[in-house]
Design goal:
By secondary structure, the protein is of the alpha/beta class. It has one domain: TIM Barrel. It is about 40% helix and about 15% strand. The strands form 3 sheets. Strands 3-4-7-8-9-10-12-13 form an 8-stranded parallel beta barrel, surrounded by 5 helices. A 3-stranded antiparallel sheet has the order 5-6-11, with no helix packed on it. A two-stranded antiparallel sheet has the order 1-2. Helix 2 crosses helix 4, helix 9 runs parallel beside helix 10 and helix 10 packs across helix 12. It starts with a helix and ends with a helix.
């Protein structure tokens, strides 16, 4: 870690985590606007790879949650990511959970969040995407349900968002695994998952015919599942013609951070403590899918070796979030270079 980044990180970690994230994003946007991205961040690694019928500039992406409203696409694309996932977005704007709702655990290189899908609504996101320069980036849009939409009506929110963003996304992620929206994770199982996937796949087919454009659908799952449940999900994803799976979201487990400051805060835990858990899910998925469906691995990537191990476990692409917060843009380049061969 360079001295300059060490000082910058010390500043950011001395203030409220949510404020720090917003300031950091605004600084990245400013650097891009001033034309200083190459000087500050270096030239992006270009190592194209074909996944979901899309050509990704490199295998390293930004996971959903950092740029919820697509306000910072151009700046983030200049940092070196091969793809960016914005959202989670909901049909209507919502404030999310009360603050504070984002907590660092530096001793474990981890973050706990209970943001609650705070966002400005799908219409705002679409306007931001329209204004963005997307010539060198693959854009994923992550969709969810409003907090006050009953779980039994959740499919309506997902369908609404799918219809709204279809023309503007390179791929769309169905987020059914956040621990911060009541009842959401129940959509990962049984008849509820089957109904959701059938409905959205049917709508994808209609939209593809109407627009003459096929936009792949990915499903993001949780790390807190038994192997048999993971296998059942894999089988259903194949059966319903879903285009990719993202493994994984944050964990509700606290086993790896017991006794540490902030460890008992409610919300999803990300970072190093979820690495082994999420990698195991990738391995189980890979064994079940047998290469029939691409896997995007997320969870605890803090080094090039971590990224390589995700690929070795069976993933085709990786996403980072917490590692980016702790290590900065250097992590993106390290991982992209390591995965370029």
């Amino acid at each position: 870690m360079s001295l300059s980044y060490s000082l910058i990180r010390r500043f950011f970690f001395s203030i409220d985590a949510e404020k720090a994230h917003l300031i950091g994003l605004k600084m990245i946007k400013l650097v891009h606007t001033m034309g200083l991205s190459s000087l500050i961040f270096g030239k992006p690694v270009y190592a194209p790879v074909e996944v979901m019928g899309l050509t990704f500039p490199n295998r390293v992406g930004l996971a959903a949650g950092l740029d919820k409203n697509a306000d910072f696409i151009n700046g983030l694309s200049s940092v070196g990511f091969g793809f960016i996932e914005v959202g989670t977005i909901t049909p209507r704007p919502q404030p999310g959970n009360p603050r504070p709702r984002l907590f660092r655990i530096p001793e474990a290189q981890a973050i706990i969040n209970r943001m609650g899908f705070n966002n400005k609504g799908v219409e705002h996101l679409i306007e931001q995407v329209k204004q963005a320069d997307r010539s060198n980036i693959i854009l994923g849009i992550n969709i969810g349900k409003n907090f006050d939409t009953p779980v039994e009506s959740a499919v309506d929110d997902y369908k609404y968002c799918l219809q709204a963003v279809y023309l503007y996304a390179d791929y769309i992620t169905i987020n059914i695994s956040s621990p911060n929206t009541p009842g959401l994770r129940s959509l990962q199982f049984g008849d509820e998952l089957k109904h959701l996937l059938e409905t959205l796949k049917a709508e994808q087919t209609v939209l593809a015919e109407q627009t003459d454009r096929y936009v792949p659908l990915a499903v993001k799952i949780a790390p807190d599942m038994e192997d048999n449940d993971i296998k059942l999900i894999a089988e259903l994803l194949l059966e319903k013609g879903i285009d990719a799976v993202i493994a994984t979201n944050t964990t509700i487990s606290r086993d790896a951070v017991k006794g540490l400051p902030n460890a008992e805060e409610q919300g999803g835990l990300s970072g190093v403590p979820v690495y082994q858990q999420s990698t195991h899910v990738v391995k189980v998925l890979a064994e079940q899918l047998q290469g029939k469906l691409p896997i995007i691995a997320a969870g605890g990537i803090f080094s090039a070796q971590d990224a390589q191990e995700k690929i070795a476990a069976g993933a085709q692409l990786v996403q980072i979030y917490t590692g980016f917060i702790y290590r900065g843009h250097e992590l993106i380049k390290e991982c992209a270079e390591a995965l370029s061969s």
